[in-house]
TrEMBL record:
GO terms for molecular function: UDP-arabinose 4-epimerase activity. This is UDP-glucose 4-epimerase. It comes from Rhizobium laguerreae. Pfam families: Epimerase (PF01370). Keywords: Carbohydrate metabolism, Isomerase, NAD. It catalyses: UDP-alpha-D-glucose = UDP-alpha-D-galactose.
Length: 327
């Protein structure tokens, strides 16, 4: 009898890597995705249910059909800039859609939920590295919608006995080391994909948003975590909940900060190519430095990233954006 795990957003960049990790661990991922940003050809390890999160009837039918042991909820809109321009879309999909899912889970007696949260829930951190106890004051609608659902999980856990793992991702990057999956965002706004595209000559140049930050080289510092490490952490979270572990909120990062310039240096190391750049003014809402304290993920989930050094991230992602890397 297969052990099913429902994965909302399973056709997306992170979701598809999670499905692969689940499958390798002997579970069958059931992808629930409207394919608004995901890709049907990334769904290879289990069935695809193409439907909206807000479609309560289809959600209920799907949960009843598969009786999943756990739900991993990654399905969301995730562009910070778009969330500022179109908050209605973000509140509808990320809040109303997520609550519809949560209610459907309650109705079907599914009481284990792993949620894709974000370091965006912290806003501008009061101190570094960011610990889970740090105040959560998101500075954009995207981060607020993620925090609202974290709060709903906490309240539903207290009242209805569900158990959850809220996983606060830092910057997901890289690609499946076997080359079976890749990042395919449309539009592509993230730093590493854009820098790789520029290095490969598929983008005229990379705009660097700000060179006058109070950081060592003046550019912003972020914590990049390899998507396959992120996927392993989801597997660990599922196993934690299956073993009757309690609810938790944990950071998922590498624990190291990497600047924009250091990314460009890593691309040069891996490929010998220079990234053509243009120096621009700061992007509104960008905190200068974000990186995680990862002690809790290590202690509670046994999570230790193995692919998240910046060279491995660049080497796995490079070819998927048309950049030849040396062996
Ligand atoms: N960034 C940049 N040029 C780009 C995209 C991003 O300089 O074309 C910078 C951005 O200002 C931030 C970092 O790269 O400091 C990471 O941005 P990304 O959008 O990848 O992730 P975020 O941290 O905003 O979630």
């Amino acid at each position: 009898m297969p052990r099913y795990i429902l994965v909302t957003g399973g056709a997306g960049f992170i979701g598809s890597h999670i499905c692969k990790a689940l499958s390798r661990a002997g579970m069958t991922p059931v992808t629930y995705d409207n394919l608004s940003t995901g890709h049907a050809d990334s769904v290879r390890w289990g069935p695809l249910i193409r439907a909206e999160l807000a479609d309560a009837a289809t959600l209920r039918r799907t949960l009843a059909e598969f009786s999943p042991d756990c739900v991993i909820h990654c399905g969301a809109n995730a562009y910070v800039g778009e969330s500022v321009d179109m908050p209605r879309k973000y509140y509808r999909n990320n809040v109303v859609g997520s609550l519809t899912l949560l209610e459907a889970c309650l109705d079907q007696d599914i009481d284990r939920i792993v949620f894709s949260s974000s370091c965006a829930t912290y806003g501008v951190p009061a101190s570094l590295p960011i610990r889970e106890e740090s105040p959560q004051h998101p500075v954009n609608p995207y981060g607020r919608t993620k925090l609202i659902f974290e709060m709903a999980l906490e309240d539903f856990a207290a009242a209805y006995g569900i158990r959850y793992a809220a996983l606060r991702y830092f910057n997901a990057a890289g690609a499946d080391p076997d080359g079976e999956l890749a990042e395919r965002h449309q539009p592509e706004t993230h730093l590493i994909p854009r820098a790789l595209l520029a290095a490969a000559g598929r983008l005229e140049r990379l705009d660097i948003f700000g060179t006058d930050y109070a950081t060592e080289d003046g550019t912003c510092v972020r914590d990049y975590i390899h998507v396959s490490d992120l996927a392993q952490a989801h597997l660990a979270a599922v196993n934690h909940l299956m073993a009757d572990g309690g609810s938790l909120s944990v950071n998922l990062g590498s624990g190291r900060g990497t600047s924009v310039r250091e990314i460009l240096e890593a691309i040069h190391r891996a490929s010998g190519c220079e990234v053509p750049v243009r120096y621009c003014s700061r992007r509104i809402g960008d905190p200068p430095i974000l990186f995680a304290n990862t002690a809790r993920a290590q202690a509670e989930l046994g999570f230790a990233p193995v692919l998240s050094d910046i060279d491995t991230i660049i080497r796995t992602a490079g070819p998927t954006f048309g950049l030849q890397v040396t062996a």
